[in-house]
Amino acid sequence: MIRLSSLSLILPILCGLLCFSPPSFGEPWQEIARHVGPAEGDRQEHIDQLKKLENLDKVVIDAIGTKDQALALDTISALKLKHLVPELLESIDRDDTGFLILTISVFINKSNYAKIFQTYKNRLANSTQQSPANLVAFLEPLGRLGEPLPTKTLQKLIRHHFPEVRSATLDYSRKMMFRYYNQKYHSIIKMAAADRTYQIRQQIESYLIELESNPKARKAISAKSFFKLAAKRPSFKIKENDLRVVFGYKDARPGRFVGDRHERLAMVQHLLEPCKRSDRQTCGFRRHSKDANLLLKKVTVPGNKVPLKLHLRIVHSSASTDDQENRINPYQKVLSANAEDVFLTGLREADLVFYNGHSRFGGGPDFTPPLLNTSNYVDSVFYRTYTSGLTRMMSALEERALDKQVGQIDLFGMFSCASTQHFKKALKEKGIPKFITSKRLLHYAEALRRTEKQLNLYLKNLIDQKASPNQIVSN
Predict the structure, then answer these.
(1) pTM: predicted TM-score of the whole model, two decimal places
(2) Which strands make up the sheet holding 352-356, listed edge to edge?
(3) Is 369 a domain residue?
(4) What is residue 235's DSSP assignment?
(5) CB-based contacts of 237: which residues, under 8 Å, 6+ apart?
(6) 231 domain-assigned
(7) Least CB-packed of 43, 110, 294, 371 within 10 Å?
(8) Same domain, 207 and 301
(9) At which of 225, 259, 283 does a domain end?
């Protein structure tokens, strides 16, 4: 999405569920829409069926903000319903996940970019009225297409209380700095140098390293404007209730879209919400002041005088939604290494580990931009042959088994496509007593719902001090 001509490369933006039997005539549009992922063998057949449905435009617009939104956005992308952009722009307030905005951005072209960008800029200028996920989604295409934002807007965003918004503002400023060499954007990054959050300081460090190797960008900045920064990881040891949710690198090849950054943020927004229902525990968390990935919560346990302390680490793998951009961004290596470390160390010592990402054809959990074949698809032969992700995963579990001071993992979840087929046998052979896998290929929205649902179930059982009657789950 760097140039208008390349926007078509990411049309399969929100895709996934790939293994249903062909729909019968008169089947609900939702079931037909589940087949329009880019790798679906009978994808075109289902697209043709959707085209024949009466009032399809109204149906998909009405689905915005409902449980069927993801399928509606898939339909809009697959059928290239760009004439719906005005209605989509009017529907922005009905969604707080950012995915509606990402879909709108797919259809940016010369005839509509002025209206779309003005809408985005107006929303960014009134950032307090927008969800963090929407703010991040607004910034994505503006940075890729080199659309300038007022300094006042950027100064406000770089101070936003959500670190994800500050990170997106840094990413936007980085793109503008290296494309237009305007010192204004470097000054925005310099403002963030006092940020206490470890991940923000890591991101700035990567920018400064990149700046050193870019003579044109360095020339555009006065010598006095340089600054030094040392990102120091917060030091603390979590001995109990160590919970980890790790989003792998969720690309949509052959499209360039990568979704894990936004999926994680949508989940974080839920986790930070106040608790309003007694049956929900995936709420009421607060963020650690120096670690944006660590969420904390204290809960009262019946019969206990001391509250239960929960430590939930939730991380993503991608630097942006554009796979091609990520491959040239030094910060991508930092994020990939961190996500893999959180996952593998979690398998060695944490109480709960959930992986939400690609199975890589049985190659195992993956946190980096994938290896591609000559057709620009993920190289399935490589992943099936070398299974490096699976090997590292099993090695970590073996290390845990040999450590007499660490007990068995309470629950291990693999919310990835066909993980039952790919990984269940190995997990059973390794003696993992409680794990979750999926029998079929997963739509991203379904995987996200299941991740939060199973986390909520685990937390309820932990707080009630009851063992779940169905901890080993195969979906």
Answers:
(1) 0.89
(2) 286-287, 294-299, 308-315, 242-247, 352-356, 411-415, 435-437, 473-474
(3) yes
(4) -
(5) none
(6) no
(7) 110
(8) no
(9) 225
